[in-house]
Design goal:
Chains A, B: Its EC number is 1.5.1.38. 2 copies of one chain form a homodimer. By secondary structure, chain A is of the alpha+beta class. Chain A has 11 helices and 5 strands. Helix content of chain A is about 45%, strand content about 15%. Strand 1 of chain A pairs parallel with strand 5 of chain B.
Chain lengths: ~250, ~250
């Protein structure tokens, strides 16, 4: 490993693009095993490993999940659809085996499980991409979380956090620019609103230019416009607290 | 990139160990820039980029954060301490710039920000390790989140999710075994309790053997025992819901 400069790992990380069109080639068992092994190697709070991932390859069931996630065609078409669940159920079984009646849980344990699932999934994504596969996260798995619970037989104290399409890419999308580094990283303290607004403005200009070039001038948008639209009440799955409560999570 | 088999990226992912002892060498600006660029390259829900990371290098402030995170010496000793925050504040600024009074938010937006911060942080961890650096996540940043807010000047709609020590490793810890793959990955549906209990038992045996060998027989523990202890009420930061509410998050 080099102690400085660029390397194959960083090149892989920086090359990430979400892939929404896949070749029909299956993900092999060897690839899947490496992907899950990489997921398991991620950090986990005090080794609690509070996540479970469920893989769907059957075309009819992929179609069913495509419907449940907002009719995203790539969910039906990807050869492997992974559903990442934040999961305290296995821990409860272990703890009960030690004679505890009920496992204590609260907002902190919900965060622990959510973070554990996310770190594992991101390692899986990186591993998949290093194998020449493409992925896209599917937040739409939270569109109908109760139906997903039924579909997968998820027990109490687990919930579907996001899906992930995996397969051989059949497209090569551009990389959309991100916020300036200074907008997401700060030294010593959180930046002032004035500085943030300046960075957002800079990014709005960059993204608006990017869209204009790619669309031959047809698309006029920027980050602030997109975010105002994205964060409208209708787009914000107002059922999640109720779903989590139904799954037995305590939001206190 | 190979289409199958092992590669440098997967080797890096599988080689992860948490590092809690660091050489005094600083993390260079070049390394930090690559680490943050890798973080920014991670997937983010609809490009919301709902996280901010704050870097601390000043020794006195690292000492202060060591105290706030449960007197973890490595927090004071690592040359760079990163604090990863789930952050909707920058989004609110952007949305307000579009003439919206207040950004809508709920449990879903809390999850979005928490996941975004986690995916970015895991990319940063992988990038750091590829550069020969070591890292450890510090959940202890949630021990005193209100004090962390004050220390960093965190605005409403952001909260400290975890810290991360970064530096040149001065130790080479063993890799503790994880749960069997079959315990965290399932095909088609969630596994039965009987199957999970079997896997947990297998893991308890493996981990108990691992501890016995490493401690010359002195340490008798296993995963279930550790989890029962870890998940006791006292260890589960009962203040997180209140903290989030104080930071303006809606838990509904």
């Amino acid at each position: 490993m080099s102690t400085t400069g660029d390397n194959e790992v960083i090149r892989t990380l920086l090359a990430h693009r979400s892939i929404r069109k896949f070749k029909p080639d299956p993900v092999t068992d060897e690839q899947l095993n490496l992907i899950v092994a990489a997921a398991q190697a991620a950090s986990t709070s005090s080794n609690i490993q509070a996540y479970t991932v469920i893989g769907i390859t059957d075309p009819e069931r992929r179609q069913r999940f495509a419907e449940l996630t907002g009719n995203q065609r790539h969910v039906a078409e990807c050869p492997l659809f992974l559903i990442w669940c934040a999961d305290l159920h296995r821990l409860e079984l272990a703890v009960q085996g030690q004679g505890e009646q009920e496992m204590h849980q609260n907002m902190e344990t919900l965060l622990l499980a959510t973070v554990d699932a996310s770190l594992a999934a991101q390692n899986a994504a990186v591993a998949a991409e290093s194998l020449g596969l493409g992925i896209v996260y599917i937040g739409g798995i939270r569109n109908n979380p109760d139906a997903v619970v039924t579909e997968l037989g998820l027990p109490s104290l687990s919930y579907p956090l996001f899906g992930m399409c995996v397969g051989v890419p059949d497209q090569s999308p551009d990389k959309r620019p991100r916020l300036p580094l200074e907008a997401v990283y700060a030294h010593d303290a959180y930046p002032s609103d004035a500085k943030l607004k300046e960075q957002v403005e800079k990014y709005d200009d960059e993204l608006s230019g990017y869209y204009a070039v790619r669309s031959g001038g047809a698309r006029t948008s920027n980050w602030s416009i997109e975010m105002a639209s994205r964060l409208k009440e209708n787009n914000l799955r107002g059922h999640m607290a109720e779903h989590l409560t139904k799954q037995g999570f305590k939001l206190k």
